[in-house]
UniProtKB/TrEMBL annotation:
<feature type="transmembrane region" description="Helical">
    <location>
        <begin position="16"/>
        <end position="35"/>
    </location>
</feature>
<keyword id="KW-1133">Transmembrane helix</keyword>
<protein>
    <submittedName>
        <fullName>Nicotinamide mononucleotide transporter family protein</fullName>
    </submittedName>
</protein>
<keyword id="KW-1003">Cell membrane</keyword>
<feature type="transmembrane region" description="Helical">
    <location>
        <begin position="174"/>
        <end position="193"/>
    </location>
</feature>
<feature type="transmembrane region" description="Helical">
    <location>
        <begin position="104"/>
        <end position="124"/>
    </location>
</feature>
<keyword id="KW-0472">Membrane</keyword>
<dbReference type="Pfam" id="PF04973">
    <property type="entry name" value="NMN_transporter"/>
</dbReference>
<dbReference type="InterPro" id="IPR006419">
    <property type="entry name" value="NMN_transpt_PnuC"/>
</dbReference>
<keyword id="KW-0813">Transport</keyword>
<feature type="transmembrane region" description="Helical">
    <location>
        <begin position="42"/>
        <end position="60"/>
    </location>
</feature>
<feature type="transmembrane region" description="Helical">
    <location>
        <begin position="136"/>
        <end position="162"/>
    </location>
</feature>
<keyword id="KW-0812">Transmembrane</keyword>
<comment type="similarity">
    <text>Belongs to the nicotinamide ribonucleoside (NR) uptake permease (TC 4.B.1) family.</text>
</comment>
């Protein structure tokens, strides 16, 4: 895996490594496919996690562990979007706004998860270079992916909140390509948020599994 951690190019004085460039480019493609509600968003997300896992495994165990969780959530998203329930007339996942109980659960999970993960990072400094922001981004990403898997418009809001911390954190820690990608994420998130918001008003509300007929 030394090749993944070798330098690919220098951009604006910042040294860009292959794993950073490939993994985050795949992440950008993932978000674009999510905007289009394409099932392929999940295999590409899984591949992005796999590339970064391979780059981190053996010397940054915390980062590798985070990518393992991302890959697991990608498999969950694939299973959700592959099932026959909750689809729009075009055969793709139908989007909707989360219910208030769902929102409360996600906010509580994000808050509790951030605290728990940050405390783990602080207890084991080798797992993270900046425990609290790193925990916030990691947990926020997992929550966003969960909301995406469930077809919730709030998926985009979660990504936007991740971006607000992710951009300055990546630039501050020398991950310039990640920082640039997060800037593009922000623009795509606003575009996707608008599309899903309008679509949630046009598409018939999906029938959720277990709901009364």
């Amino acid at each position: 895996m030394n090749t993944l951690n070798s330098e690919a190019l220098v951009l604006f004085g910042q040294h860009i490594i292959w794993s950073d460039m490939i993994g985050n480019t795949l992440g950008l493609i993932t978000l674009a496919l999510g905007f289009r509600r394409s099932l392929w968003t999940w295999p590409v997300q899984f591949l992005s996690g796999l590339v970064l896992f391979g780059a981190f495994y053996g010397h940054l165990s915390g980062s590798a562990g985070k990518q393992a969780v991302v890959m697991a959530v990608a498999l969950y998203g694939w299973s959700q979007w592959s099932r026959g329930t909750g689809k729009a007339e075009d055969g793709r996942i139908a989007v909707r706004f989360a219910t208030w109980p769902e929102r409360a659960t996600m906010v509580a999970a994000a808050a509790a998860g951030t605290v728990a993960v940050a405390l783990i990072f602080k207890a084991y400094p080798s797992l993270s270079w900046d425990p609290w922001p790193d925990a916030y981004i990691f947990v926020g990403t997992v929550v966003a992916m969960y909301a995406q898997a469930r077809g919730m418009v709030e998926f985009w809001f979660a990504w936007l909140l991740v971006d607000l911390v992710g951009v300055p954190l990546n630039f501050a820690n020398g991950y310039a390509f990640s920082g640039f990608v997060y800037v593009i994420y922000g623009a795509l998130v606003l575009w996707g948020m608008r599309d899903w918001w309008l679509r949630s008003r046009r598409d018939p509300r999906p029938v959720l599994e277990g709901a009364p007929a």
